């Protein structure tokens, strides 16, 4: 947009804080290469357009905006003389895209000193060569440092997740190995029993009844009820007494297995009625092996299912073999993240899931959202641990207008008011040296705000800290969204 050209007065230009130390010759060059323009209320330049000019406000009011989704979000409003915006990185040349990183409007007639980007670049390099080199090094050094530490942050998170996943996988895997070894032993004993049967110890009719009882017992194992510890203890006593009364050796050893399988005294009476007294001890031994093999196979099935569930959760968390941008259920992402981090959360922190399951799926980058959840859960766990290690982590979802809320609430000591405004700044951390890079929340903010057009903020008092992520229920074309790693902050 062009404004009304006005005379450039070196004396007035020198009253702006950027130019107050310049010589008369330098001020003269500014006025000869630049110009003063007066803009009526409205837009001055638009985000994403080629950055052709550097603007310094002489008088008036400016408002800076950033494009978030389909809306312009105001990030700054000021009437302070000398504030500047526009082609601020012109001195970097073609090393970075030379486009406006925000949009500027004026709300009243406003005068600017306007310097073409090429002149601004030349003047910076001629008048302040050392400063230009320092600024260039600071710009790229900060980018490289942020990228390197960001990669380190992800590697640390990956290491923590890998350790937790290994721990979680070890338990069911070890259980399956133990159950398999025991099952092999029981099957060997059953083969021995078959040898006894083959020797003619049982007649055909008794053998038929035993096989029928075995089948019915296997069906009962699959339908075994869950008993309280007191109920299980009472039933074990009853079964032990019955087995002792009927001359079954080591009834105390068999009774717990029968109770776990859901067998009771009435069932044993039915077995006793189906076989003669001489056959009963062998029948009980045969049933014991049957029950044990069924229970062991159930244990192996449960363990392998748990392993499969963990692997599925890991795939869900990492989003392997999935489109990077798709419609997702945030509850699936939250569940997979909490499962992956369960080893780090530990037993002393209670996890409460307060989900609104009626919420619709939303278009998102699920792998990036999982990174956000990881960072926020990690911070919550650190906060609770710093307060003694016992507390509660509540993950809540809800609908707020046309946005979906995901809230992480912890019972830690809270965030002091004097640092609350800095927690999203790159490299700022409240963790001890070596335990935090200060990029977790910065990365999370960029993913939520820049890439998903949402918002991320915190509310905190001692014992109640809440990080709230608000995501739009609908989103524009993902190709139009900026990369969170390269998006610039508003100036």
From TrEMBL:
GO biological process: phosphorelay signal transduction system
UniProt GO molecular function: protein histidine kinase activity
Domain Histidine kinase: 296-475
EC id: 2.7.13.3
Domain Cyclic nucleotide-binding: 18-124
Reactions catalysed according to its record: ATP + protein L-histidine = ADP + protein N-phospho-L-histidine
Superkingdom of origin organism: Bacteria
Signal peptide (from-to): none
Name assigned to this protein: histidine kinase
